[in-house]
Amino acid sequence: MRAVLLGPPGAGKGTQAVRLVEKYGIPQISTGDIFRKNIKEGTELGKKAQEYTNSGRLVPDELVVDLVADRLLQDDCANGYLLDGFPRTIAQAEAFDKMLEKNGQKLDAVINFEVGYETLMERLTGRRLCKACGASYHIKNFPPKVEGVCDKCGGELEQRKDDTRETAEKRIEVYEESTAPLIEYYQKAGTLRNFNAEKDPAEVFAEIVAEIGE
Length: 214
Ligand code: AP5
Description:
Elements: E1 2-6, H1 13-24, E2 28-30, H2 31-41, H3 44-55, H4 61-72, E3 81-84, H5 90-102, E4 109-114, H6 117-126, E5 127-130, E6 136-138, E7 157-158, H7 165-179, H8 181-189, E8 192-196, H9 201-212
Parallel strand pairs: 1-3, 1-4, 2-3, 4-8
Antiparallel strand pairs: 5-6, 5-7
Helix pairs in contact: 1-9, 2-3, 4-5, 6-7
Bound molecules: BIS(adenosine)-5'-pentaphosphate.
BIS(adenosine)-5'-pentaphosphate binds next to helix 1, helix 2, helix 3, strand 6 and helix 9.
């Protein structure tokens, strides 16, 4: 299965990706995770991406498209993949269409998460991630057993740099301007599937599986 997770920051794309990857046995390709890893490792790409991710703006298309094109050619993508955070602009969606055509593939579904503004802000500002293993928590919705400590590996929890109120507001604004137009783009293509992602994660997951198949 080849699918795209579409939705505003904090909609629950990463949360559902963990479940979908396990269910369908395909890799999650998160452009946000790729940038954060490169920033942490101080690579050239990381240095270029940092100023954009930290301020909540989109990394320029030319830095994203080639990176995804290369990643999709790796062996683990042969039977499908789950794109999380890409495409994010019409130009990226058009470039992605060309990649699919070149690889003789088709996109099965665009899973679109619908969530209101207040919920997004509450989810983003309350998110905490494990520094060691990357596990995700929420201070109210999914708190760890011991405050600030990962249940899975005992690592320290931290807040993502772009999850402050000010940067989260900027990210949602950028989503509305640059990414929301993809809803119409994929509606026209016939691949869009809408989900109410205000619900509990288990319920959202069950609805996605019911829609896209076992
Ligand atoms: P990226 O990492 O893609 O971030 P994002 O799209 O802003 O999405 P998030 O990871 O913040 O949210 P999510 O939807 O995954 O929510 P989550 O499941 O964690 O991008 C970061 C930056 O990288 C961008 O700003 C940009 O600069 C750059 N970038 C990346 N891709 C790019 C591209 N293609 N082009 C250009 N630039 C790019 O959930 C959030 C919280 O809510 C968690 O705490 C979770 O526990 C909780 N939660 C989740 N679901 C539920 C639920 N159903 N009920 C209650 N709580 C829930």
